[in-house]
Amino acid sequence: MTRIKTDLCIIGAGSGGLSLAAGAAQMGARVVLVEGHRMGGDCLNYGCVPSKALLAAARQAHAVRTGGCGVAPGTPQVAYAVVMEHVARIIAAIAPHDSVERFEGLGVRVIRAWGRFAGPRMLEAGGNTIRARRFVIATGSGPVVPPIPGLENVPYLTNETLFDLRERPEHLLVIGAGPIGLEMAQAHARLGSRVTVIEGARALSREDPEAVAPVLDRLRTEGVDLREKTPVTAVSGQAGAITVETGAGPVTGTHLLLAVGRKPVLERLNLPAAGVETTPAGVKVGDDLRSTNRRIYAIGDAAGRAQFTHAAGYHAAVVIRPILFGLPARARATQVPRAVYTDPEMAQVGLTEAEARRLHGARLRIARADYAGNDRAVTAGRTAGFVKVMVVAGRPVGATLVGEGAGDLAAVWSLVLANRLKISAVTNMIAPYPTLAELNKRAAGAYFIPGLFENVWVKRAVRIVQGTLP
Ligand SMILES: Cc1cc2nc3c(=O)[nH]c(=O)nc-3n(C[C@H](O)[C@H](O)[C@H](O)COP(=O)(O)OP(=O)(O)OC[C@H]3O[C@@H](n4cnc5c(N)ncnc54)[C@H](O)[C@@H]3O)c2cc1C
Ligand SMILES: NC(=O)c1ccc[n+]([C@@H]2O[C@H](COP(=O)([O-])OP(=O)(O)OC[C@H]3O[C@@H](n4cnc5c(N)ncnc54)[C@H](O)[C@@H]3O)[C@@H](O)[C@H]2O)c1
């Protein structure tokens, strides 16, 4: 056993662990980073990067198929294996950024082994005993495998195996219509698979129904057979012929993808030895992201809060303050955006309209702008969608967006919510013409329209001033 003493030991080299390691090492801390599997974690290897690379390929195929702007439609030549090699190349292109070499170059000591607590201040990993002033659990999450009768005898895919496919699924069955299920459903439909999505409740059920509707309409128009409120009762069959039994009858396809949620990855850590308590969502933490052992923090998916790469990065920025400088810091959920990268995209920051109405009642005002009124959207033929802003006493409390580039547009509303800015901060901004970014300014401007354009007092004041001006 090699004994290592360090300031900070991070377990997990995914989105959260890597951000923290890079920041802490560059600010002068001694950092040990323990990774049992692939550097880059879920996002790089099985999550954001491959899914967005596949969606990009699917968009190309869709553009050829549909034509538009005076360009005739055609038949896209899609070789699924070549598309998946493109996905693998994208992962490989980003991998150096998350590599052992890069992090060792930053002064981080990287240990490629699974970590396991041996006590409240001691971790064992690959023949090393690591004693650290602070530990951070950044071990991420994995796909839930639900207790569906028959599943144990049926070959199924998850996000960890989907991108290994090299033959296009003839008919892909997807259980779960959350972000993973819908993104992969649209990608595969556009790449030529028949796709059936089976959802036990409502698709994207936590999102604003007004924003979800155009997404589901588009998927259905593109041929995705989306069945909501259809609980799965059993599955059976073998590779190439898998049957999912539902209350509304059976459906048979060639491949089955499970996309029914995530569970924290904590099992190897031996957390009881460290006095770290857990809940089904993840490590039990407060807003300071500290566990029940005050020397141990949890960030990212393992902390059981928002499960996004940008949330993991934000958590890293929060815990670095107490760990390096002994300063207090709290993670706020308010400004954490979420986006679904279907076409059209959907994004949410802060409260939805329903949540804001529950919380603020009659004080809530809604300001909105439609893509149809945005010149850039018109020139691109992408006029479906809207930006809706929930405003209370002149300050936005949430924004809902659906349409081309909604995820990018959402960033402005995160800025506004993070800094508790007034909505006038967005009207003061000047967006270049013609850009979709003007939609944010237009939505903010709409907040002032009743007070400015539909106000008799304003009109009278203008008359009086005009009557007196030389
Ligand atoms: C299909 C899919 C698409 C997604 N798309 C998006 C997206 O578009 N945008 C977005 O923001 N988010 C997206 N996400 C979510 C995003 O991938 C996660 O929120 C993010 O990866 C979480 O980062 P993390 O650092 O908490 O965990 P991870 O990135 O999962 O890293 C955890 C690391 O810890 C390691 N580990 C676990 N246990 C141990 C141990 N005992 N010892 C040592 N190492 C250990 C693991 O091997 C892993 O490398 C997507 C997820 C999926 C599945
Ligand atoms: N664009 C993004 O940022 C992005 C993309 C993918 C994933 N993610 C992250 O990963 C998380 C997990 O995504 P997800 O889509 O797997 O989970 P999810 O929890 O968001 O959605 C799962 C869906 O499956 C349904 N379901 C559960 N059990 C079922 C059953 N037995 N039969 C039928 N339907 C069932 C649920 O009702 C739900 O609608 C997201 O919440 C997000 O944090 C983010």
TrEMBL record:
<dbReference type="GO" id="GO:0003955">
    <property type="term" value="F:NAD(P)H dehydrogenase (quinone) activity"/>
</dbReference>
<dbReference type="GO" id="GO:0050660">
    <property type="term" value="F:flavin adenine dinucleotide binding"/>
</dbReference>
<protein>
    <submittedName>
        <fullName>Pyruvate/2-oxoglutarate dehydrogenase complex dihydrolipoamide dehydrogenase (E3) component</fullName>
    </submittedName>
</protein>
<feature type="domain" description="Pyridine nucleotide-disulphide oxidoreductase dimerisation">
    <location>
        <begin position="336"/>
        <end position="442"/>
    </location>
</feature>
<feature type="disulfide bond" description="Redox-active">
    <location>
        <begin position="43"/>
        <end position="48"/>
    </location>
</feature>
<keyword id="KW-0676">Redox-active center</keyword>
<keyword id="KW-0547">Nucleotide-binding</keyword>
<keyword id="KW-1015">Disulfide bond</keyword>
<dbReference type="InterPro" id="IPR004099">
    <property type="entry name" value="Pyr_nucl-diS_OxRdtase_dimer"/>
</dbReference>
<keyword id="KW-0274">FAD</keyword>
<keyword id="KW-0520">NAD</keyword>
<dbReference type="InterPro" id="IPR023753">
    <property type="entry name" value="FAD/NAD-binding_dom"/>
</dbReference>
<keyword id="KW-0285">Flavoprotein</keyword>
<feature type="domain" description="FAD/NAD(P)-binding">
    <location>
        <begin position="7"/>
        <end position="315"/>
    </location>
</feature>
<keyword id="KW-0521">NADP</keyword>
<dbReference type="InterPro" id="IPR012999">
    <property type="entry name" value="Pyr_OxRdtase_I_AS"/>
</dbReference>
<dbReference type="Pfam" id="PF02852">
    <property type="entry name" value="Pyr_redox_dim"/>
</dbReference>
<feature type="binding site">
    <location>
        <begin position="176"/>
        <end position="183"/>
    </location>
    <ligand>
        <name>NAD(+)</name>
    </ligand>
</feature>
<feature type="binding site">
    <location>
        <position position="301"/>
    </location>
    <ligand>
        <name>FAD</name>
    </ligand>
</feature>
<dbReference type="InterPro" id="IPR016156">
    <property type="entry name" value="FAD/NAD-linked_Rdtase_dimer_sf"/>
</dbReference>
<feature type="binding site">
    <location>
        <begin position="139"/>
        <end position="141"/>
    </location>
    <ligand>
        <name>FAD</name>
    </ligand>
</feature>
<feature type="binding site">
    <location>
        <position position="199"/>
    </location>
    <ligand>
        <name>NAD(+)</name>
    </ligand>
</feature>
<keyword id="KW-0560">Oxidoreductase</keyword>
<feature type="binding site">
    <location>
        <position position="52"/>
    </location>
    <ligand>
        <name>FAD</name>
    </ligand>
</feature>
<feature type="binding site">
    <location>
        <position position="115"/>
    </location>
    <ligand>
        <name>FAD</name>
    </ligand>
</feature>
<dbReference type="GO" id="GO:0016668">
    <property type="term" value="F:oxidoreductase activity, acting on a sulfur group of donors, NAD(P) as acceptor"/>
</dbReference>
<dbReference type="Pfam" id="PF07992">
    <property type="entry name" value="Pyr_redox_2"/>
</dbReference>
<feature type="binding site">
    <location>
        <position position="261"/>
    </location>
    <ligand>
        <name>NAD(+)</name>
    </ligand>
</feature>
<dbReference type="InterPro" id="IPR001100">
    <property type="entry name" value="Pyr_nuc-diS_OxRdtase"/>
</dbReference>
<dbReference type="InterPro" id="IPR036188">
    <property type="entry name" value="FAD/NAD-bd_sf"/>
</dbReference>
<keyword id="KW-0670">Pyruvate</keyword>
<comment type="similarity">
    <text>Belongs to the class-I pyridine nucleotide-disulfide oxidoreductase family.</text>
</comment>
